């Protein structure tokens, strides 16, 4: 819809060129042209309906008008009456008949932008004019640079128009000139004579066929009814260049659930009129639409049967599917000849009254649905009832919007314009951050600002270390056959035992290493390089397991930082800036943790196999005893014999097979030392990698503290501004919220005054 209403990029027009100044004392009004200084009687003014003259009604309508005057309709949906119809449906004539203002008809002057006419009963007659700037046209995301330039010029023209007419009473001035000047301010059409100007005007008109800027006319007088009507540009065929823009404007207004619609149709075939498609799209259309049929003097007896059915508005008539709660009304428009004759409204009303005295109309037995007087009465009744229904919902909505704006403003925090305010903001956040981060590290989860698993970093670290320990233990058990037999003897024949034992790949690997490292040792000994070589080959898997641990904890710390910042800092932009700052510390601490791992692994791979733990000796004996029990059990299953005899056989076999004995001895030494070295390494990872680095003083969970913030940013205003300053979007959002909050607060003051006036205390205030 925004694209439909965007403006073109043509040259601007000076709204003041060759335009007569219509203010008092400056405009020469021709006596032979229609003006608006005549008495109400001359226009055939009618008394306001009784239900619009009471104090309660005046208070309601006055309250809505005051809200409109504040501009609150840009924030909440206000009750409004919208006039919609096809082009050439007689819509302008209907508006003229209701308001008694001589709107131009058939010249396109007043159909290119919405016109809001507010009729108000007052002791003295007056006419006030202003233009509300377009809202959707200012959406810079959908505008080219040239379009933005055009909108800026339009804004200047509107400002000039409003300045000229502020506080002025246009009563008695030539209305057509006022409308022309308003058209020029909104659309930029130049009145300057000359072929070049006309060419420019045509080009401009093609690109800026419609606008959502609104001409606002307030007419006051003792004979006025209290009602506000918004006249929309006429709907045109789908092949017309302005079709999308016109429909977009209409959709914008009728999408307001608090709008009611005066639908203007004419006697032609309903299938050719877009207004009926529009009506069908309106939610609850039967109760929100009142219909008017113009040009009823063009209906021939026996023709246009749908018009007569509409006037009857019989809900029980199955052949009529356009029933409206407020009905359809019939009008007679002035003909072009009558308009050119400068006839007054009395003439119009008399001709209309004469028409509806004809038999085809009297036979309908619906006198209350015929003529402008009945239309005015029906409109004001509908409008008043609609306003009465809307206000009880409207006031709580204003309060809710006010509370939301207040909450959003509080969420932005204090303005961060100066270096001092930026530093104070960071220190305040850092104070909260450091306290809660310390609680998270120490495991005081009950003190955390939110109950979130991602923030419980001590539990996360403990769980990760337990998983690390279990995976390391599984590797150890897999490598050294701790929970299952390392080999199976297939026969009691001793000649097969060596092959059965060496089927275990780890035992075979030890055998190859012993053979590869043979030196000056005795036949029943093993070179000392064997243990060192095998030990060095085992530690690379420790690196993989520990790097996985570090990577997991670094990620968890980053998530904890993110959730903690979100809990204590509502400003999303500030959250991101601080998180980006702490991400640098996260990267650094991960680097330090990996470096510490390298040092630990370097020590393990140095070849120094030493421990002060005597448990090593106990584990050696345990491995030997387990192996002997395993071999005896297998041989006993193969053939049951005397246990002492079998034990002697196995010991004898080992004495003869020194190679296998050396393999088992090396295996047992390596396994017992691996168990001790693994536990030592895991403890070092826990203390030196995790606690010293990942959770230490340089951890991102500790580096955002008040003293460190002061040290880091004091005297560096540019760095401080980048992290804590408000960007352009934030400043604009703050201003938008503050302006909206101010408007809503004033609206609530009006609402309080209104409720006190009618003696109501429970309307959501």
Describe it.
InterPro entries: Dynamin, Dynamin_GTPase, Dynamin_N, Dynamin_stalk, G_DYNAMIN_dom, GED_dom, P-loop_NTPase. It holds the Pfam family Dynamin_M. Residues 663-759 form the GED domain. This protein has helices at 55-70, 91-99, 145-165, 175-187, 195-207, 243-254, 274-281, 285-288, 305-312, 336-340, 345-355, 359-362, 372-412, 419-442, 457-480, 497-501, 505-516, 529-538, 540-568, 572-604, 615-638, 643-656, 658-694, 706-713, 717-724, 728-758; strands at residues 80-85, 115-121, 126-132, 214-221, 227-231, 259-265, 289-293, 328-330. The chain has 765 residues and is of the alpha/beta class. The protein has 2 domains: 3-400, P-loop containing nucleotide triphosphate hydrolases (Rossmann fold, 3-Layer(aba) Sandwich); 420-724, no CATH class. Strand 7 (289-293), helix 9 (305-312) and strand 8 (328-330) form a beta-alpha-beta unit. Helix 14 packs across helix 19 and helix 15 (457-480) runs antiparallel to helix 19 (540-568). The longest helix has 41 residues, at 372-412. The radius of gyration is 45 Å and the shape is elongated. Residues 1-53, 137-141, 191-197 and 202-208 have low confidence and may be disordered.
């Amino acid at each position: 819809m925004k694209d439909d209403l965007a403006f073109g990029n043509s040259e601007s027009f000076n709204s003041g060129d060759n335009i007569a100044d219509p203010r008092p004392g400056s405009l020469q009004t021709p006596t032979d042209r229609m003006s608006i200084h005549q008495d109400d009687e001359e226009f055939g003014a009618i008394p306001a309906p009784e239900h619009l003259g009471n104090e309660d009604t005046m208070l309601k309508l006055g309250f809505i008008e005051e809200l409109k005057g504040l501009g609150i309709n840009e924030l909440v949906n206000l009750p409004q009456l919208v006039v919609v119809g096809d082009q050439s449906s007689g819509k302008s004539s209907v508006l003229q008949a209701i308001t008694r203002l001589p709107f131009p008809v058939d010249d396109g002057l007043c159909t290119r932008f919405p016109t809001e006419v507010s009729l108000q009963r007052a002791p003295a007659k007056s006419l006030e004019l202003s233009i509300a700037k377009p809202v959707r046209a200012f959406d810079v995301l959908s505008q080219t640079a040239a379009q933005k330039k055009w909108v800026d010029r339009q804004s200047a023209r509107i400002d000039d128009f409003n300045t000229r007419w502020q506080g002025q009473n246009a009563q008695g001035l030539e209305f057509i000139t006022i409308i022309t000047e308003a058209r020029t301010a909104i659309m930029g059409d130049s009145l300057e004579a000359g072929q070049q100007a006309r060419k420019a005007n045509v080009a401009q008109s093609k690109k800026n066929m419609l606008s959502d800027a609104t001409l606002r006319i307030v007419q006051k007088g003792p004979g006025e009814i209290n009602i506000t009507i918004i006249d929309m540009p006429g709907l045109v065929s789908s092949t017309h260049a302005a079709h999308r823009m016109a429909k977009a404007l209409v959709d914008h207004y009728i999408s307001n659930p608090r709008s009611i619609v005066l639908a203007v149709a004419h006697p032609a075939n309903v299938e050719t009129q877009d207004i009926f498609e529009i009506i069908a799209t309106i939610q609850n259309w039967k109760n929100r639409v009142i219909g008017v049929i113009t040009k009823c003097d063009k209906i021939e007896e026996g023709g246009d049967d749908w018009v007569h059915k509409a006037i009857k508005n019989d809900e029980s008539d199955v052949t009529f599917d356009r029933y409206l709660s407020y009905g359809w009304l019939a009008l007679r428009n002035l003909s072009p000849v009558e308009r050119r004759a400068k006839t007054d409204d009395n003439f119009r009303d008399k001709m209309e009254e004469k028409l509806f005295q004809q038999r085809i109309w009297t036979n309908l037995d619906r006198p209350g649905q015929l003529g402008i007087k009945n239309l005015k009465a029906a409109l004001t009744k509908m409008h008043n009832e609609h306003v009465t229904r809307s206000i009880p919902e409207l006031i709580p909505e204003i309060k809710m919007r006010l509370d939301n704006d207040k909450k959003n403003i509080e969420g932005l925090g204090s303005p961060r314009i100066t270096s001092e305010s930026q530093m104070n903001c960071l220190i305040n956040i850092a104070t909260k951050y450091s306290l809660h981060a310390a609680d998270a590290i120490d495991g005081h989860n009950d003190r955390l600002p939110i109950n979130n698993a991602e923030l419980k970093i001590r539990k996360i670290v403990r769980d990760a270390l337990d998983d690390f320990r279990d995976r390391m233990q599984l590797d150890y058990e897999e490598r050294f056959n701790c929970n299952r037999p390392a080999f199976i003897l297939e026969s009691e024949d001793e000649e097969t035992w060596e092959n059965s034992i060496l089927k275990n790949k780890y035992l075979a690997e030890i055998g190859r290493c012993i053979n590869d490292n043979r030196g000056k040792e005795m036949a029943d000994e093993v070179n000392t390089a064997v243990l060192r070589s095998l030990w060095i080959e085992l530690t690379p898997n420790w690196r993989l397991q520990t790097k996985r641990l570090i990577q997991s904890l670094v990620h968890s710390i980053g998530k904890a930082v993110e959730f903690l910042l979100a809990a204590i800092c509502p400003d999303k932009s500030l959250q991101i800036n601080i998180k980006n700052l702490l991400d640098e510390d996260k990267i650094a601490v991960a680097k330090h943790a990996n470096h510490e791992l390298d040092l630990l692994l370097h020590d393990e791979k140095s070849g120094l196999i030493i421990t002060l733990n005597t448990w090593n000796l106990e584990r050696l004996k345990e491995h030997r005893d387990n192996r002997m029990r395993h071999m005896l059990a297998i041989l006993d299953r193969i053939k049951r014999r005397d246990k002492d005899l079998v034990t002697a056989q196995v010991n004898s076999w080992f004495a003869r097979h020194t190679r296998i004995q050396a393999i088992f001895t090396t295996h047992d030494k390596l396994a017992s030392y691996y168990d001790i070295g693994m536990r030592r390494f895991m403890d070092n990872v826990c203390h030196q990698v995790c606690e010293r680095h990942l959770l230490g003083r340089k951890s991102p969970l500790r580096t955002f503290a008040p003293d460190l913030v002061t040290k880091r940013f004091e005297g560096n205003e540019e760095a401080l501004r980048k992290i804590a300053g408000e960007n352009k979007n934030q400043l604009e959002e703050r201003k938008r919220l503050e302006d909206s909050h101010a408007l809503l607060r004033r609206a609530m003051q009006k609402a309080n005054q209104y409720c006190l006036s009618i003696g109501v205390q429970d309307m959501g205030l």
